[in-house]
DNA sequence: ATAGAATATGAGCAATAACTCGTATTAACA
DNA sequence: TGTTAATACGAGTTATTGCTCATATTCTAT
């Protein structure tokens, strides 16, 4: 059987000093990922950039994978911060407006460190045991589905499972793709248009005309 | 300046024998990518699996990148085969039906070796100089845009640039995501539903009600 | 049949990777 | 202050990778 790389931290930093070490390592990993790419991200290099000895690195992380997971996780948390913050208002809004808010939020979320986002999205899946991003994606999906449930009678779709899948996937892809491949769409005016049309796409699909 | 890895074949195979060698190498690369992942895809391993000496590998390919590009390209061609085949009919059809055909085609295209498709989509972007996939994606985009142009007066959108981006991105993401993360959606009945709803999504967006 | 071109081989080198472990340093606390 | 636990260090081991090159085999064509 294949030796599957560990992805969990080796031990928890107890003292202040060591927490700084761990932070430096994670930060360095993120920087290297963004600036030099996944290949160049070796444990030796990480330690070097972090200004930490290679020995210390292995004291807290069992290997490269764990570092990368830590970076991805940190990024995920930052994004969820953004999302949850704006999700409160949505409940009170009428459906059409709510959808627009959701789309706008998706766009905003994608503006959190897009370069890191790109690396994580593109190069991380190869870190097999990374269910985290899966979970991440499902989280949005579930939240959205719950919202649809609460507005069921205003919608023209009946398979909410499928509808959620379609909406979340589309919007996620739209923003994601825009950030990664068409950054020109992220000028302020173009962004407004993107949000409008994205909202329109979903609205037209969900709401009985 | 950084030494950028070559991605073009080193020389063209002239005799039958060498063409077989090249084929074996590309095929082996594809198999390893699918079955063992990108990391395990080393030139040594490729040569081994192909039953070809490492020296021969370097006779035809300057490095790993070139092999991977060859695989991606082969896959792309296979898919374009599928797409172009069905694209003929579309011109004659009324818009609504045409859209459904296009969505159905996208789904079908994604059923060509989905496992390889996944690897290429997820792990290949890190092979920097791979504009091929970009080109690939833009090709669909352009084709679709041209189609919209021809039906302009039947549509409610006016920025066809943006509209194409939204439609192509959404449908691509839908099918892609379905294959990769929700294979249960690819049972035959579920697939029908997916096509219907996908078509509905785009139709509602494009066509004035 | 034979020369020369095309193709194939794989031992082996240089570079780099992941990772260990014995030792040194610092903090915590009695 | 002295003892112990926590933290940090980095030279060095082992494994792997990309890749070369001298040599061997096979094909083509005269």
UniProtKB/TrEMBL annotation, chains A, B:
Xref: InterPro entries: DNA-bd_HTH_TetR-type_CS, Homeodomain-like_sf, HTH-type_TetR-like_transc_reg, HTH_TetR, TetR_C_15
Keywords assigned by UniProt, alphabetized: DNA-binding
Gene3D superfamilies in UniProt: Tetracycline Repressor, domain 2
Organism this protein belongs to: Halomonas organivorans
Name of the featured protein: AcrR family transcriptional regulator
Classification lineage: Bacteria, Pseudomonadati, Pseudomonadota, Gammaproteobacteria, Oceanospirillales
DNA-binding region(s) from the entry: 42-61
Pfam families: TetR_C_15 (PF17918), TetR_N (PF00440)
Segments forming domain HTH tetR-type: 19-79
GO molecular function (one): transcription cis-regulatory region binding
